[in-house]
Every structure is written in structure tokens, then in C-alpha cells.
Amino acid sequence: MSNKDHITDKQATSRFIEEMNIKARNIGMMNSHFVNVQGFFHEDHISTPRDIALMMLETMGYKDMMRIMGRRNFECEVEGENARTIKAITTIENSSVDDNYTVLVSKTGRIPRVTTNLAIIADTKNENTSFLGVVFKGRTRYEAMRQLFDIGNTVLHSKTKVTPHALMFKNGNFDFGNKYWKNNSGSFNLDYQDYYTYPASYIATSRGISTQIHTGRLNFIPGHKYYVSCMVKCTRYESGTIGFQFTAIKEYQTVGLQRISDGWEKISDVYTAEEGASLRRVYFGGINKANLDGRIDNVTIVDLTKVYGEGEEPTKYEMDEHVYHDLSADKGLVIKMPQSSIPYNFENLNVLFEKNSEELGYPASLTKLLTAMVFLDNISNLDQKLILVSTAI
Q: What is the pTM of this model?
């Protein structure tokens, strides 16, 4: 072999990264650029949730990758002088996702103090629905992924568009059971069959003694305007109100239904918090000695003054035009998994919800999906042994 056939490690790495960027362009990742194979932090090593979604879809054509990414543990046999078995356990297991979804393939990515990412393809348990979700810079990436999948189910179930928003209350859709809620009277029970926003609604059945839950300490600011809404359904009515009671004003205001409803209905209002009032909570359920059967879902509380600015707050009617959901991540999207294997782009994909999904961010170890695909494009036999010398490690 002549000298011209030899290349340095640096040249080999540069060529491999060049192939990664070519692969990315062929997939349709037009807003991504890669400068290393691991996903280490670099100002020019960038991507978007949309591009990562296309990359995840591309992995479906690699059977070995799908098999490996779907496993929960691994073993690697090392031969030689220091023979040993190396065991690895997946970092993707988390009850926030696993309780309602079956993870098929997944990849995490993290750069300390910079970003925490996650990409998952999963099936909804007890539903014939599969989703692809991508989270960038998740404050709690597993909860954010669960939120994305729940929103996807809501869009398909309720045939409604969901808009991302900065909500004061984080569990208005009962994604996480009774987390953040306080029980005021009666029993805290959820209905996992009859809901407006997946996965459950609050059972507000009352028999003369109102059944209520409240939001705990929300710290309303005097002079700020607040939008409060929820979806309600009343199936039996004798007395009282099913809805909510706003307490951050001196004379509490109750909004809701006093009749049987024809399916789910939105109730809402805008309030200005007052000095000297209880500035902590909103009550939801059966109110005023209610005797009724019903459900409450999609609890939404927004500090309009904080979000839009003083004097620029939207009206109740403008806010009523949308269904809102918080996402505990800076960027993300959820897609209903396609059934065909045609080349994918965002003109033929069913995007159910997205937040800042075209903004640039750092992909971190999600990069390794692309690294693996380029490797597999050139190495077909994964059973072959690799011989490493100490100087190469």
C-alpha cells in the first residue's frame, strides 16, 4: 500500500463529518450543521426539533438501529488481556412517559448547563396511535415528552388545535394525576374514559355537599389581568354550579353551568386581581351546594399582563379562540407517525403540535443517530470483531 492510501485520524474524522452533513441534507435537514460526531458543544454544531424529527424518521429504514434503540439494556464482550463484559442500561426509562406510552425507539442528549434533549417514537397504551416527539432544552424533558404525546392524543380525540402558552398552572389537563392540585372537599377522582384533553378529566359529582379541588398558591398580583377557563360537561343537574370560583377579587366570582350540557363546553372570564383579596387559588368543581354530575378538564390560567404587557392584554373572546397547553421545554413538536415509507417532509407529515420547532438549538447526543446511520451506510456486518490497539484508545 502506498503512502497516498494512508490518511491521518484528523483527515478521517473530517471526511466522516463531511459525510454526516451530506446525509443530513439528503434527509432534508436544511437547518442543521454538524462539526463533530458525538454532539459535543460547539457554536456551529446546530439543529432544530423539525430536523431531528426527520432524522428519527430516517432511522426507521435501519433495522439494526431500530433493534438497538428499542432495547433497555446491552452487553458488549471485550476479548484480550483484560477480557470482560461491559453492561449498559438505557437512560430512557421514566414513569412520566412509561405510564401511558410504550417506547419503541429513543435517544437522549444533554450538554450540562446548555440543553437537555429527548427524541422518542412511542405507541399509546390501549390506543392504536403512534407518535414521534422531539424536545429541546426541556426543563423536565420526560414530562415535556409526556405533554407532547398527551397533546397529540387530545388533538386527535377532540379534533381541536392546541396552542402553546405560558400557563400559571401546570397540570390543568390532569396529565400527572393530582400533582399540584389540592383537594378542598369530597374525593379527588379522575375519569380516564370521558375527557376533553387526554388523558383524564376531573369527576365533579356532588350530592348537596360540593366536590371541589383548588390550585393551591398561585400568587396573583394586584392590578394584573388574568384569563381563567376550563372545559365542563354536566350530565345531571339539580342545583348549584359546575365550574370555577375566582378568589383574587374581594367579591368572589363563580362561573359555570347551571344546566345539563350538550357535550363539552368552555367557560371563561378575565379578572383583575385586587389588593386585600385572597391572592392564592381558584376552585374548580361543584360550587354553591351543588347537586349534579359532571366533569371538568383543560383548566387554563394565564397572567395576561405578564405575558402581553399592561394595556395590551387580549380580551376574553380573543383568548377563547384557542385551547392552550403548557410545554416544559423551550422547543418541541409531536407528529402522528406516518403509515407509509415515502420520503418525508413537513408538507406530508401530520404535525399535531409544535413550539419554536424551527428555532436553532444544540442537538447534543442526538447527533449520534446521524453518526450511526453514516457508519451503517459503510459497514454492513455488525457481527465482525473490531481489533483496537492501546494507542488508538
A: 0.87
Give the separation between CA 210 and CA 291, rounded to whole angstroms. Answer: 7
Compute the mean pLDDT over every residue in the chain, rounded to the nearest whole number. 90
3-state secondary structure at position 300: strand
Distance, in Å, from the CA atom of 108 to the CA atom of 39, rounded to the nearest integer, reads 11
What is the three-class DSSP state of 359? coil
Q: What is the pLDDT of residue 2?
A: 43
CA–CA distance, 311 with 160 (Å, rounded to integer): 30
Residues 359, 48: contact at Cβ < 8 Å? yes
What residue spans of the chain are helical by DSSP H? Answer: 9-27, 49-59, 63-69, 95-98, 141-158, 304-308, 316-319, 367-378
Distance CA 295, CA 288 (A): 16
Helix (H) / strand (E) element for 123: namely: strand 115-124
Round to the nearest angstrom and report the end-to-end CA distance of the chain.
24
DSSP tag of 87 = E
Rounded to whole angstroms, the Cα distance separating 43 from 21 reads 16
Cα separation, 139 vs 145, in Å, equals: 11
- 190-194 contacts at long range (C-beta below 8 A, 24 or more positions apart): 191/295, 194/233, 194/295
The residues of the chain scoring below 70 in pLDDT are 1-5, 90-93, 341-342, 388-393
Q: Render pLDDT for 81-93 as a digit per residue (tens, 0 to 9).
A: 788 888 877 666 6
Q: Write the single-letter amino acid at 279.
A: L
Quick: pLDDT tens for 117-175.
999 999 998 778 899 999 999 888 999 999 999 999 999 999 999 999 999 988 999 98
**Count, residues in the chain:** 393
Looking at the DSSP assignment, which residues form a beta bridge with residue 287?
Answer: 241
